[in-house]
Amino acid sequence: MKQFINQKEDMVTEAIDGTIAASGGKLTRLDGYPHIKVVVRSDWDKSKVALVSGGGSGHEPAHAGFVGAGMLTAAVCGDVFASPSVDAVLAGILAVTGPAGCLLIVKNYTGDRLNFGLAAERARAFGHKVSMVIVDDDVALPDLPQARGLAGTLFVHKIAGAMAENGAMLEDCTLAAERVIKNSRSIGMSLDTCTVPGSPKEDRIPEGMVELGLGIHGEAGVEQVTSSGAKDAIAKVVQKLAATMADAPHAVLINNLGAASVLEMSILTNDLLASSIGGRIALVIGPSAMMTALDMHGFSVSVVEMTSDDAGLLSQAVDVAGWPGCHPRAPLTVLPLPDGLSPIRAPASPHPATAAFLTMCCEVLIASEDHLNVLDAKSGDGDTGSTLASAARALMGAMDTLPLADHTQLYRAIGLELSQTMGGSSGVLLAIFFAAAGDASASGQSMRSALQSGLERMRHVGGANPGDRTMVDALIPALEALDDGLAHAATAARKGADYTATLTSAKAGRATYINAEQLDGHVDPGAEAVARLFENLAS
């Protein structure tokens, strides 16, 4: 099983019940499972215009996650990627519509248009005032007469919902919804397809490519284009959006299609706000998962040109689980470091031989990045190579600022540099190692003795001992053999590193959480880094 579900046929009803159970009593549902799946505000008294939306499930938190004061009154849920039935939509309309009437907000898909449209006709036959708007915000195919409805639908939910909450008439809510739809634009991009429960995953996007202009039901994108990072992805999306945007203030909604990490979404947001349309963005919604496509590893960007009233309506507080809030675009402000954290550095002093030596060490670590990451993935979190390579790149970038001609100050400067640029426990331990080596060197100790003093201090703070399956297993024998030359030190380091592959339990670091079978036969990545460093120095 690749998904946390029970029975495929029960997944939507169980998800709805879970959403209701976690709502603190704010949500309820109509009877009629499994064919009628309608989530409703518990506090609804039919005194204002009702807003009803919905569609196929698999887009969570849309649409049940937007039911609540200030947005939807009811959400009509179909099965995964399937429109709800006419009876389900009609049940939702009849359950929430009073004298003020009801606004149906429908995404532009044939099934949704037909089922919501026929339900609206039947509700009108009962004497209810019902209007319906169709959202068609997708700009992937600008010449398509029937554009799809995407995450821009949420602009309609929010603006019309705020108006209804404030007591606006049905006609005014409908006109505003139609205006917002006219001014909304969306486009999506994904690295991978989604996984529909009970169906094999389609593998149609080659390595190094992305799909641009995709829908929210797993359908193929308009085109496959090369993928070269977040900035390039945003540039491709912005190119499509910019051609349709007026030179006016816009709100932007940055939507996670399901499987992009929070880290990725934040990077995409940063690149979007720095893009060519960044100057037109006044309000930001997200980044957040708002209208997903199950577990699709992608994102969509929606923009809406705002009137003078829209900013207030978009920013008005709501009581729903799925809305992440709307915030004004603000300039980046940077505070100075507190006193004591701005480092006092020794003056730079050139020394070509030392610079060449350090550069070679850094290049070894950079070249080993992928191999060390693979090793670390077997016993940790897979980032040892990247952590060491990042520190090496930073050290190379700071080479001209280091006191290369004064080894005592150089040890301290390296320790300071690592404490600022190298993450995790490794960065702290190596910073301690070099700082202590600097102190020992200042007291007159030889290079080997100074490095051994640094190692002892690092072991004391970190708690690692020989046999604990850490870099110490390679570093101790290497330093002990250093007086006999680099070749002997390299041999000792390699022997110590290979020894770690025979250790099936670790007593320090993240490998302590790994079972014996996973550790057996795999060299500790920190020890491997030490061995590779000495081997390259010896050669």
UniProtKB/TrEMBL annotation:
Record's GO cellular component terms: cytosol
Main EC class the enzyme belongs to: transferase
Origin: domain of life: Bacteria
Molecular functions (GO terms): ATP binding; glycerone kinase activity
Domain (DhaL): residue spans on this chain: 352-539
Every DhaK domain range: 7-323
A Gene Ontology biological process term: glycerol catabolic process
Pfam families, per the entry: Dak1, Dak2
UniProt KW keywords: ATP-binding, Kinase, Nucleotide-binding, Transferase
InterPro entries: DhaK_dom (IPR004006), DhaL_dom (IPR004007), DhaL_dom_sf (IPR036117), Dihydroxyacetone_Kinase (IPR050861)
EC numbers for this chain: 2.7.1.29
PANTHER family reported for this sequence: TRIOKINASE/FMN CYCLASE, TRIOKINASE_FMN CYCLASE
Protein's recorded name: Dihydroxyacetone kinase DhaK
Organism of provenance: Octadecabacter antarcticus 307
Top-level taxonomy: Bacteria, Pseudomonadati, Pseudomonadota, Alphaproteobacteria, Rhodobacterales
Gene that produces this protein: dhaK
